[in-house]
Amino acid sequence: MSGWASGARCRRSARRCRNSGSLTKKVHPRRLTSVSQFCRRVKTQLFQRQLQALRDLLSRDRRLAGINFLDGLPLPVGNFSRDPDARQGWGVGRVEKGYKLHALATQDRFLAGWSATPLNAHETHVAGMLIGQAVPVPPGSLFLADGNYDAHDLHKHVSSHGGWLWARPRGMAEHPVTLRQMGPARRALLEVWRQTPSPPPTGYDASLMPTPPPLPPDQPFRWPEGIRAAVSLTFDDARTCQIDRGGPILDSHGIKGTFYVTLNTMMRRLDNWRALATAGHEIGNHSTTHPCSGNFQWSRGSALENFTLHTMALDIDAASKSLNEIFGQRPRTFAYPCGQTFVGRGADQKSYVPLIADRFLVGRGFNNEAPNDPGFCDLAYAAGIDMDCKRLDAVMNHVRGAQETGTWLILAGHAVGDKAPQTVRADVLDAVCRFCADKSNGIWIDTVENIGAYISAARPVAAAAMNRR
Ligand SMILES: [Zn+2]
After folding, report:
1. Four-CA torsion 190, 192, 193, 195, nearest 10 degrees
2. Region at 247 (left for phi over 0; alpha for psi -120 to 50; beta for the rest)
3. Which of 55, 135, 206, 311 reaches 20 to 30 Å from 27, CA-CA?
4. Which residues pair with 74 in a beta bridge?
């Protein structure tokens, strides 16, 4: 008989339960262990492993969300405790001695940060530290907290990261000096609170939330001297003609391209792909199983609708591992198969862009319409514009548009050859390469990795923080 069957029988008969052996005693101990016995158990390896597993589970996703919560829980010890680290501070409605557990949780119920301190540590200081460790703060995100967190410095700190602290005001300051010193974020909070005489009802009501303080204005972005715009040529799925026709065209103009390879097709001509990489072209991650929506019949066996963030991460990481083994370096950029960025379906659908933000310098989309504004764009989802089957004037319209707007145009194609579906016309590719290689046109044409790295390093800190930790 299994232990659980034994437990079920116990529920049917309390008297038999009390006599049924050690399992029942473990599940329903009659009384708590003594402090000394508890301390001994805490020191055992089994307990420490369980504690570590719990910690890993709670902190596996430390990303802040659109709505986050700050709170603290007093952990008092007896007033006569000789614990040298315990301190006196504000506990549950009174001064107590002990510790406090501080937590920064997200609306997804993950812990973005936590800290255990003596009870006298100030909640707002610890909150500032936790937020500082958990950056980037999603622009305009909210931090909900009780009145203990309503401090000028914390408002300014959260605001400097682009977020918004929503705490019940501890007082409605009127004095102009106080109002000036508190900073714009708390002034706006007080204003909203004045206009909202009663506290918000239970639950989150977006109409009661104030407009977040504006982000710092964009600082001008500069391309290197003499450059007006950037272009990257990218090719997906490791089509053989990319080696036979695409690579030679790029090489004839001294241009480096980016190839987002699928592993199974790449293995057929591995030596050629190695030679391409050795020549300076970039090999990027395009996942292992190329998952797209199951609406593509060919993708039913690897449909995004059936993926979770976990299985997607495994798929992407496996590709990076294989590419690292083959080429001796991990890919730094990624192309979303079919340009699609979701996993799951319905209420469980999620974006997997954050997985890419964590792992890569750039994630390239597909079938986008506008090129990337280097001072603003999200490098984790950089626009990729389709060049398959396009005539020269259509592609050149995009190139000239990038020249005029100072943007980064990433062109994306599949096969290279003559007129055929999903094929970049070789004559068009050749002409675009010739135009971009002509220095008088002020275009920097290079791999996604090289241009992405320049943008990441050169643009304003505030904008860069939106993309990378
Ligand atoms: Zn693809």
Report:
1. 130
2. alpha
3. 55
4. 100
* Residue indicated by tokens 């006298």: 120
The secondary structure of residue 243, as a DSSP letter, is I
Average pLDDT over residues 420-438: 96
Handedness of CA 432, 417, 247, 335 (dihedral sign): positive
Ion ligand 1 nearby residues (CB, 5 A): 236-237, 337
Centre a 10 Å sphere on the Cβ of residue 264 and count the other Cβ atoms it contains: 11
Residue 237 CA to ligand 1 centre (angstroms): 5
Give yes or no for a contact between 309 and 258, defined as CB atoms under 8 angstroms apart: no
- Amino acid symbol at 29: P
Please give the Cα distance from 376 to 361 (Å, whole number). 15
How close is the Cα of 14 to the center of ligand 1, in Å?
A: 62
Ligand 1 centroid to 83 CA: how many Å? 61
With a CB cutoff of 8 Å and minimum separation 6, the contacts of 320 are 285, 330, 331, 359
Interval between CA 290 and ligand 1 midpoint (Å): 6
CA of 463 to the centre of ligand 1 (A): 29
CB 448 within 8 A of CB 260: no
Nearest-angstrom CA–CA distance, 385 and 403 = 15
pLDDT in tens, 158-189: 988 888 899 888 777 777 777 888 888 888 88
CA of 402 to the centre of ligand 1 (A): 24
Which of 462, 278, 258, 273 lies closest to 364, judged by CA? 258
Distance CA 343, CA 346 (A): 10
Lowest mean pLDDT among 281-295, 386-400, 450-464: 450-464
Q: What gap in Å lies between CA 316 and CA 154, rounded to an integer? A: 38
**Pick from 133, 141, 210, 136: nearest CA to 125:** 133
Report how far ligand 1's centroid is from the alpha carbon of 418 (Å).
20
- Comparing CA positions, the residue from 376, 383, 380, 389 lying closest to residue 459 is 376
3-state secondary structure of 416: strand
User: pLDDT tens across 239-280, in order?
Assistant: 999 999 999 999 999 999 999 999 989 999 999 999 999 999
* 455 C-alpha to ligand 1 centroid (Å): 25
* Structural domains of the chain in order of their starting residue, each with its CATH number: 3-31 (no CATH), 62-208 (3.30.420), 229-467 (3.20.20.370)
